[in-house]
Design a protein that fits this description.
Strand content: under 5%
Shape: globular
Largest sheet: none
Helix content: 40-55%
Mean pLDDT: 87
Structural class: mainly alpha
Low-confidence stretches: none
Radius of gyration: 18 Å
Number of helices: 6
């Protein structure tokens, strides 16, 4: 059994990934990603995270080295075959085939791009 109390204080413990699959995101992002992929394939797109709870100053709570380790880990993830089958075969919003077969094929080779991490006012 895992001893969480020891692990919290053991800074030599190997990375425990927060994100374990590229499916660990909200479904809306897949819909928007397919939309951009279909209609604007040559337009560069960026994503940013804004912490709406400004009282929680993330940069002061999360060590940058830990966040970078998590971000680097997720950049190495790729979709597994069973995940692509799940995306392609499920019924979403009462509809089958919400994702085009060409998009599912695109996801087969998809990797998250590099990132820029910066501090702004404790965030």
């Amino acid at each position: 059994m895992l001893d969480f109390a020891t692990r919290v204080h053991n800074h030599n413990y190997r990375l425990d990934p927060i994100i374990r699959s590229l499916l660990d995101t909200d479904f809306y992002k897949f819909l928007m990603h397919q939309f951009i992929w279909m209609l604007y394939p040559d337009v560069p797109v960026t994503f940013s995270l804004i912490n709406r709870t400004q009282k929680v100053r993330l940069a002061e709570l999360i060590p940058e080295v830990s966040l970078r380790a998590q971000l680097d880990y997720v950049r190495d993830l790729q979709f597994q075959e069973n995940e692509l089958i799940w995306l392609a075969g499920n019924r979403f919003y009462g509809r089958r085939d919400i994702f085009r077969p060409e998009y599912i094929e695109y996801l087969r080779g998809f990797r998250l791009p590099d990132y820029r991490l910066e501090r702004q006012d404790g965030q």
